[in-house]
């Protein structure tokens, strides 16, 4: 085989591999863009109080792991917006979102634990999630955390802090922006 043909074959393989890589990535970006568009439509519908449309747009995105969609659906379930009230399902959705570091969901889950809405009332768990929400930039969490700390023993507060910040995770990611 002539050297020129060998070089062409080698380059053709590289070009084909590059084209396949780009096509695969553009598909991923297209899916991500579609997911972002669905999230935006769902948020818009939620803000317009069109809960049926919000549910239609947000459920698939939430199932794909989108934290903001999970948070909004959690709110809808806990408050009966477009769906029957299901506080347990709402708290579960808050948890899914909170575990990804979504500060608003961390605060909502803390409130669920504080008042026993959809979960067993537990001030230590509430404190844990408030610490994380505050760490992730949700300032109102500080005030509620201080109220709860007045009801806890110093060793409980210390253990809660240790558990909240024991190892880096998505829970401590900076995600306060909705």
Structural class: mainly alpha
Q: Give the overall pLDDT as a whole number.
A: 84
Q: Roughly how many Å apart are the termini?
A: 61 Å
Biggest pleated sheet = none
Which range does the strand content fall in? under 5%
Gyration radius, in Å: 23 Å
Unreliable spans are: 1-28
> What's the total helix number?
8
Compose a concise summary of this entry.
The chain has 178 residues and is mainly α. It contains eight helices and no strands.
Structure explained in plain terms:
The protein is mostly helical and 178 residues long. It has 8 helices and no strands.
Q: What does the secondary structure layout of this molecule look like, with pairings?
A:
Elements: H1 3-47, H2 51-63, H3 67-79, H4 87-98, H5 103-115, H6 123-135, H7 140-149, H8 154-164
Helix pairs in contact: 1-2, 2-3, 3-4, 4-5, 5-6, 6-7, 6-8
Features:
single chain; 178 residues; mainly alpha; 0% strand; disordered N terminus
């Amino acid at each position: 085989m002539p050297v020129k043909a060998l070089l062409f074959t080698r380059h053709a393989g590289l070009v084909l591999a590059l084209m396949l890589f780009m096509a695969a990535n553009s598909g991923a970006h297209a899916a991500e863009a579609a997911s972002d568009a669905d999230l935006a439509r769902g948020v818009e519908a939620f803000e317009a109080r069109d809960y049926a449309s919000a549910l239609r747009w947000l459920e698939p995105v939430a199932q794909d792991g989108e934290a903001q969609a999970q948070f909004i659906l959690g709110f809808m379930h806990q408050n009966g917006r477009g769906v029957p009230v299901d506080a347990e399902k709402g708290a579960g959705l808050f948890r899914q979102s909170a575990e990804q570091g979504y500060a608003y969901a961390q605060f909502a889950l803390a409130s669920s634990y504080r008042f026993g809405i959809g979960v067993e009332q537990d001030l230590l768990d509430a404190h844990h999630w408030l610490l994380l929400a505050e760490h992730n930039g949700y300032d109102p969490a500080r005030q509620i955390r201080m109220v709860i700390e007045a009801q806890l023993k110093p060793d409980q507060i210390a253990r809660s802090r240790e558990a909240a910040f024991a190892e880096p995770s998505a829970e401590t990611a900076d995600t306060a922006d909705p």
